[in-house]
Design brief:
Rna Polymerase Sigma Factor, Chain: A, 2 domains, globular, Arc Repressor Mutant, subunit A, mainly alpha
Length: 183
């Protein structure tokens, strides 16, 4: 991890604990780096860098809204670059013309693949114990057994919409429980 990335991670950790000056400093420090990344990305795609500032602002807003998803024990830069890459791609898509983006040109934006964590059946049961009733049945049917919403609805005697709502609520509950376990 570079000194800069370490400093940004420290500022983000402080900001997560409510240190507003640290958060302001972080945003001020990452903005020029984002500006450079976005400008390079626009140029590589054959586009004018005129929209770079809009994309940087969208990226900063997205970082603000998604700051709770950054894991404090992970490097900050790959997380930030992934958000910037997504905002750049969104902008290019909105332009409505097909653009070939060679993957090699964007390798610096790509985060390393995350290791898939598999839970044992005991761990799965323990995590599912955070759920009750229909939410548990729906999460088990879709996430554990691999059924689609239609199959789960048929099996559980629910509408597909109710299945989706119960799945969303169940996964949200599990996410909170899992975060609490990691702390």
């Amino acid at each position: 991890m570079s000194d800069r990335d370490g400093r940004w991670a420290d500022l983000m950790r402080a900001a997560s604990k409510g240190d507003e000056p640290a958060y302001r400093r972080l945003l001020e420090e990452i903005a020029p780096a984002l500006r450079s990344l976005v400008t390079q990305g626009l140029r590589r795609s054959g586009m004018s860098p005129d929209d770079a500032e809009d994309i940087v602002q969208e990226t900063l807003l997205s970082i603000h809204l998604k700051r709770h998803t950054w894991r404090e024990n992970e490097p900050f830069s790959p997380w930030m670059r992934a958000i910037a890459r997504n905002k750049l791609i969104d902008n290019l898509r909105r332009r409505g013309r097909a653009t070939h983006l060679p993957l090699d040109d964007y390798s610096e934006f790509l985060a390393a693949p995350e290791e898939q964590q598999k839970l044992s059946s005991g761990e799965t049961s323990k995590m599912l114990s955070a759920l009750n009733g229909r939410s548990r049945q729906v999460v088990e049917a879709i996430a554990v057994e691999g059924l689609d919403a239609r199959e789960a609805a048929r099996r559980l005697g629910m509408s597909e919409g109710a299945i989706r709502v119960a799945l969303h609520r169940g996964l949200t509950t599990l996410a909170h429980a899992f975060r609490d376990v990691e702390r």
